[in-house]
Specification:
The chain is α+β, with helices and mostly antiparallel strands. The chain contains two helices and six strands, in the order H-H-E-E-E-E-E-E.
Length: 148
């Protein structure tokens, strides 16, 4: 009997029809290029987030105080360039996380002797009138006001 090769076998075409043709392997060069592209994109994203992905102002809540059912205060530190003016949106929320008070405060320019870090960080207190008893006060966002 003659040896039958797999390509001449009647089963080979039916297997290809049933399972599809075998996939080609990815070359080593393609793998290296894909890995380099992923590394460059990852590094770019990390740099964007750490350096260029912000709008020039950051904030941190120091404390909040629910005075009564009509008033809540929020103490926060705002870090920005000393010459810039920022606005921060504050909100007070009840135990269902519904907003019961809202206020936008302005943080003006600082001199180098004002605040801390040579005028970069300022501690401010924002007062919010509330419709009902709040359980927390938070900063929604802060942004730099462009001069008009």
């Amino acid at each position: 009997m003659d040896a039958v090769t797999t390509s001449d076998s009647p089963a080979a075409p039916s297997l290809a029809n049933r399972y599809g043709t075998p996939k080609r392997k990815v070359s080593k060069k393609t793998k290296v290029i894909a890995l380099a592209v992923v590394a460059v994109l990852s590094l770019g994203w990390v740099l964007w987030v750490s350096v260029g992905g912000h709008d020039g102002v950051s904030n941190k809540i120091v404390s909040y105080n629910v005075v009564d059912a009509t008033m809540t205060t929020v103490d926060l530190s705002v870090t920005k360039n000393p010459g810039d003016t920022a606005k921060c949106a504050l909100k007070a929320m009840n135990d269902s996380y519904a907003v019961v008070g809202w206020n936008v405060i302005t943080v003006g320019p600082n001199g180098k002797d004002a605040g801390i870090e040579n005028g970069h960080t300022t501690l401010v207190r924002g007062a919010l009138r509330t419709d009902s008893l709040a359980v927390t006060g938070v900063v929604e966002s802060c942004w730099i006001v462009t001069p008009e």
